[in-house]
Structure formats: structure tokens, C-alpha cells
Amino acid sequence: MKKIISIAGLLVLITLSYAQNIQSKSSDLIDPTLNERQNQFLNDEAEALLLQANRVLTNYPPGWPEPINRRSALLLLDGVFHDVYAPHRPAVQSFLKSRIKKAVNEIEQTEILNGARIWKLYNHGLIIRTRSLTIGFDLVSGKSANIEGFSVEIDDINRLINQCDVLFISHLHKDHAEESIAQFFINQGKPVVAPPGVWKDKPIYTQITHLKRVSNIIQPLSVKNGQEELKVIVYPGHQGENTENNVYLVITPEGLSFSQMGDQYNHDDFEWIDEVKNNYVVDILMPNCWTEDIARVAKGFNPAIIITGHENEMGHTIDHREPYWLSYQRKGILNSPEGNNDPGYDCPLILMTWGESYYYKKENYLK
Questions:
Q1: What span, in angstroms and rounded, lies between the C-alpha atoms of 82 and 297?
Q2: I need a surface site. Which of 41, 283, 298, 308 has the fewest CB within 10 A?
Q3: CATH classification of 37-362 is 3.60.15.10, yes or no?
Q4: Phi then psi for 144, rounded to 5 degrees?
Q5: CB 121 within 8 A of CB 103
């Protein structure tokens, strides 16, 4: 009888051990609903598709009119990035890191004599370099995705900060603001401009520059230890009803003007959006791609070109990882499958992915 119990107990232990081993293996899989072979297949597929997209994007850089080959590559990225587990996949992580590293190398080696070069980094992060200075908007590493291995390497973030003279933060959300990055700017004596509610309960708050959120009022901002001065208008934007979202219009010493809109989405704000063009000439408008009625926004700012941001933010669920195809639809280039087509807008759309850049020369866009 004891032998029977002993054998039964041993079988139970073996069964429990096997079950625990299966559970452990399942939890280690990127997509736990698939087996190891299926997950590896999707890893390999992501690597192959991203390699091809990268080749096409390298051969067909951002421009207007946009080459059709380039458009196909961006749509290919949508297919890869809308896998629920995309940010976990090694090829996607490598794609982000390699393209940001490429941008860092370019920024360090780029001198501007006329016009401006604009680099699109992760999410709505942008760096703009003119002859006199370098401006950063909403620079983040990708920690908002909350996935180990996905964010940009800290060394490359530090190199980006070293190249910039000022940082503008639109609002507090983690895909637009990282306290550690802001602190690095401040430690280097570089101004960080943000809305009044950003990190208000933390020591960094008193070190941040809080410009007034008032339409059409130019406020001076000293940069490069007083060697240069920016003219800044801070439009009182919002995301939804309650989140203060600064919409900056920054005018450089050369007279170039750049507006980054953060996560602007509030119908009441069209009261000032509709009037921007009546007060200022805007060279480059950088809205969030999902902003309310982008055609009306474009009409209100009347910029020379538009560079959208916020496509494929990996911390979002797939229905809110705004795809490139949606930006094309809202421009009026692609038709909606439902037939509810957006009216589109006239000014050029320069659509970029992580790490790409575009050279803007004002005289090429005189109206």
C-alpha cells in the first residue's frame, strides 16, 4: 500500500513539475498564445520586413512630392508595428535603436548655413537645427511603452541632449515628457519650457521655465547662455477638457518659425487656431497626426509644410498606435475603406519615421 501511495505521489510531483515547466516556457514567449516556433516565425518576418522598409526609406528619403516607393515602405511599417507584441520583438527594438543612433550621428555632424533641418525621433520628439541654434521638442526615450529592451539607449539620449540648446515640453504624458531628460538639460544650463502643471510636486519644478499661456503674445527666451534669443508664443492648447497642452510657435533669430502642437485636441481651441495665420507666418507645423480636424488646423496655421508626429507610439493599444495610412487618409491621399473620406489639405505633408530628417529651405516654399 505504501508503494502505491509513493508511486502516486511521485506521479503527482512529475505532473506538477511538467505543468510548471510548460507555464514557464509559455510566459517566456513574446506572444503567449503562440508556440515557440510560431513566435520565432513572427520575429523573423518582422526582421525581414523592417530590413526591406529600411532599404527603401534609405533610397527614397523624405521629400515632396513623395515617391510612391517611400509611401509603400511606410505602409509596410504599419503592418509590422500593429502586431500587438511588436515592441517586444527584437527586430522592432533594433529598428528603433539603430535609426535613432543614425540620427544622433547625423546631428553631431550637421552644420546649417541656411534654412533648417528637422529630425523626427520617437513619437512626437523632434530636433530642429538652424544656423544659430538647435531646438528640441518632446524628447523621450520610449520608456512610455514600458517594455524592457525597447527604449533608446541612454548614451544616445545624452548625445542628443548635448546637441540641443533648449527643450520644449508640450504636456505631462510619458510619451511626451521624461523627467530625467529634462533634468539633463537643466544640469547643462539649458532652458526647459513646460506648462505649469508638469512635475509640479517635484524638486525639478522650480528649475523649469513657465512661459505664459497667452495667444499672440511674443515672449523672449534666452538660450546659449544669453548668446541667442528665441521669440516664443505659447498658445493655450488642451488635450481633452482638462490637460493643459502648450502649443508652441518658436521664431528663431533667422526669422524661421516652427510650431509643435503636442497632443492638441479640443474643439474650443479653434477660436485661436483659426486666427494664427492672421498674426504670424508659420514655416513648419508639427501637429499630432490625430488632432481634431487637421484640415482646419492646417487652414488656421497656413504653414509652408506639415510634419506630423505621434504615429506608432508603442505604449498605446494597436487601435491607438496611429498608423501612417491614417495620416495619408487625412491628407486626402488615400481613400478610407468606409468611404468617409477626409477633405484633405493643400500644404505639403512630409511624413517621416523614427530617425529620419528633412531639410527645409524657406525660399522653396514661398507662396
A1: 27
A2: 41
A3: yes
A4: -60, -25
A5: yes
Q: Residues with Cβ < 8 Å from 359, sequence gap 6 or more? A: 115, 116, 117
Residue 81 pLDDT level (bands cut at 50, 70, 90):
very high
Chain center to CA of 221:
25
State the CB neighbour count (10 A cutoff) for residue 134: 22
Domain boundaries, the chain: 37-362
- As a whole number of angstroms, the distance between CA 19 and CA 94 comes to 34
- Cell numbers that stand for 184 in this block: 539633463
Whether 101 contacts 141, CB under 8 Å: no
Contacts of 152-158 with C-beta under 8 Å, sequence gap 24+, read 152/96, 152/97, 152/100, 152/122, 153/97, 153/101, 156/97, 156/100, 156/101, 156/104, 157/181, 157/184, 158/184
Contact present, 221 and 257 (Cβ < 8 Å): no
Q: Which residues pair with 44 in a beta bridge?
A: none
- Strands 166-168 and 134-137 turn out to be parallel
